[in-house]
Design goal:
A five-stranded parallel sheet has the order 2-1-6-5-7. A two-stranded antiparallel sheet has the order 3-4. The chain has 232 residues and is α/β, with parallel strands linked by helices. The chain folds into two domains: 2-152, 3-Layer(aba) Sandwich (Alpha/beta knot), CATH 3.40.1280; 169-231, Trp Operon Repressor, Chain A, CATH 1.10.1270.20. It is built from nine helices and nine strands. The two termini are 38 Å apart. Strand 8 and strand 9 form a beta hairpin. The chain binds adenine (ADE). Adenine (ADE) binds next to strand 5.
Length: 232
């Protein structure tokens, strides 16, 4: 998989994309991530990438020309499955969408700034708009890093233990059950006995029960969906 991220602030993405699992995924050749500094696509002498909003009002708007130049340049090199724009008014990103994106070959992610991009960018180039939640970040970079991280860990081969993404929270519409490691007792707090029993069936049942209880109490919305889909 290849992810091209278009940004006015590439520095914001350096650390999240060059550490841990996301770094290993690149080193092992499972994904290629490239960031593209929008300013290098500005033909303006001051390397501007934004301008005042037509009609007035506070806040600058990202101009269409540098973005168009960058996207056209990328598209001349390969075909893209999606051109995604990170914006608080996009569709809410979730695990289902992470799964869908993880099987694509090439995607572009455009990070917004200021008051957003000229609407014509969205009309002409954008195929999917994503929000990571109902709050406003200073720019789309951190949101793009969230999406890239969630997607990359699902790309086959990225995780060492292939099954571990399958047991993540949300992967089956349930929150994950509690987990424990040594010591078996800490200041009188004991690990549930069933986990030390070696009885695989009992452990599996306990984990499912815990996941179900957690989902029902913490996320009734998810629980409703799960119960609906698992009705017999
Ligand atoms: N840009 C600013 N805020 C955002 C959000 N919540 N999600 C995606 N992109 C954003």
């Amino acid at each position: 998989m290849r992810i091209d991220i278009i940004t006015a602030l590439p520095g914001l993405l350096t650390s999240p994309l060059n550490d841990s699992i996301v770094k290993r995924a690149q080193t092992k050749g499972h994904v290629a991530i490239e960031t593209h500094d929008l300013r290098t696509y500005s033909t303006d002498k001051n390397k501007n990438i934004d301008d005042y909003a037509y009609g007035g009002g506070a806040g600058m708007v990202m101009s269409i020309e540098p973005i168009a130049r960058c996207i056209e340049h990328l598209k001349s090199q390969r075909a893209y499955d999606e051109v995604i724009y990170m914006t608080p008014d996009g569709n809410r990103f979730d695990q289902r969408q992470a799964n869908q994106l993880s099987i694509l070959k090439n995607i572009i992610i455009l990070c917004g700034h200021y008051k957003g991009v000229d609407e014509r960018v969205r009309e002409k180039y954008i195929t999917k708009e994503l929000s990571i939640g109902d709050y406003v970040l200073s720019g789309g970079e951190l949101a793009a890093a969230v999406v890239a991280d969630a997607v990359i860990r699902l790309v086959p081969g990225v995780l060492n233990d292939e099954t571990s993404a399958l047991t993540d929270s949300f992967q089956d519409d349930l929150l994950a059950p509690p987990v424990y490691t040594r010591p078996a007792e800490f200041e009188g707090m004991e690990v549930p006995a069933v986990l030390l029993s070696g009885n695989e069936k009992a452990i599996e049942d306990w984990r499912f029960q815990q996941a179900a209880d957690r989902t029902r109490t913490r996320r009734p919305d998810l629980w409703e969906k799960f119960s609906g889909e698992n009705e017999s």
